[in-house]
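Hi everyone,

Forwarding the result from last night's run.
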Amino acid sequence: MRNILTTITVLLVLLVPTHTLATPGILKMFIAKYPSTEGSQLASCRTCHMPVQNTFLNSYAFALKNNGLDFSATEFADSDGDTVSNIDEISDNQLPGSQAQAHEIFLFTNRQGAITFNHQKHSLATQYLSGGKCDNCHSIEAFPKKFDDNSPWQKIAHSVCKGCHKKSGNKKAPTRCYQCHDKSKKRSSLSQSKTTK
């Protein structure tokens, strides 16, 4: 029952237009503080609510809450732990409370080369085996429901992802290293570009 209520609430946050939510004023305050975000992916509830950590807030929203909604006080923090300050992410129209590059697009960095993962496509598109069932990929032994690029994912990814690709029987499903890994985006070069922003 709890999972059903959580799912319904998250869907409402994502699907209900912003002006009908209980706190549209906070989003208006955010856009007033950072006008360049208007019309971007940041001009939505996702900025403070995805990925949900607790009480339907993400790490950026908790930072705002703990600082009395003082946006300036949270600018130089790194709420999502990706080595980039909140203000740099906001300036680049990236999500300060999520390591995802865009909603449901995750970049897993490593020595072999980054992997760009489209969560929405993998969880909802009919050609994928997950069929919208979270437990196929998310469990104690597999991926947690919160993305963290600072964690080592190789063993899990090779088991869960590569295993699923092989099981699918789809010849287009990648099973070789550089069908997933982008050699031009290795962890060391991405870390340098983040710290030199």
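The longest strand covers residues 105-108.

Cheers,
N.
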